């Protein structure tokens, strides 16, 4: 496994900022569910201990639907969802790779998460938040 670097990121208006420990060569997931497809979210799931909210907690809103397990957090000023608690890994944090500052990213490889076969897809990524 690659050594971790500290990636910084945030929302569009800059009020929400965070950092996450992850490899410089990112293995991201692209989900085809309705919310991910519509928002263009590119997933990097990490254990919660590798994520730190640096500023802007007071600007975060939350949206939940269907099972209510996923906690979709977004900036109430600019509307960008730069991270959230995913249904597939509720003990982790899912960072939107598109919201990371580019300076620490060497490469991004993307694989598919098929929501049509959610159970199998979830089992395949269960290790990401551990």
pLDDT < 50 runs, ≥5 residues: none
CATH class: Mainly Beta
Number of domains: 1
Q: What string, H for helix and E for strand, traces the elements in order?
A: EEEHEEEEEEEH
Q: Judging from the principal axes of the Cα atoms, what is the shape?
A: globular
Give the helix tally: 2
Q: Distance N terminus to C terminus?
A: 14 Å
The largest sheet is:
5 strands, antiparallel
Structure overview:
It is built from two helices and ten strands. It is mostly beta strands. It has one domain (4-129): Beta Complex (Metal Binding Protein, Guanine Nucleotide Exchange Factor, Chain A), CATH 2.170.150.70. The protein has a five-stranded antiparallel beta sheet with strand order 4-9-8-7-6, with no helix packed on it. A hairpin with a 6-residue loop joins strand 8 and strand 9. The protein is globular. The chain starts with a strand and ends in a 5-residue tail after the last helix.
Keyphrases for this structure?
single chain; 130 residues; mainly beta; Metal Binding Protein, Guanine Nucleotide Exchange Factor, Chain A; 5-stranded antiparallel beta sheet; 3-stranded antiparallel beta sheet; 2 helices; 11% helix; 42% strand; globular
Give the secondary structure arrangement, pairings included:
Layout: E1 4-10, E2 17-23, E3 25-31, H1 34-39, E4 43-47, E5 51-55, E6 60-63, E7 71-75, E8 83-85, E9 92-96, E10 107-113, H2 118-125
Parallel strand pairs: 3-10
Antiparallel strand pairs: 1-2, 2-5, 4-9, 6-7, 7-8, 8-9
What is this structure, in a nutshell?
With 130 residues, this protein is mostly beta strands.
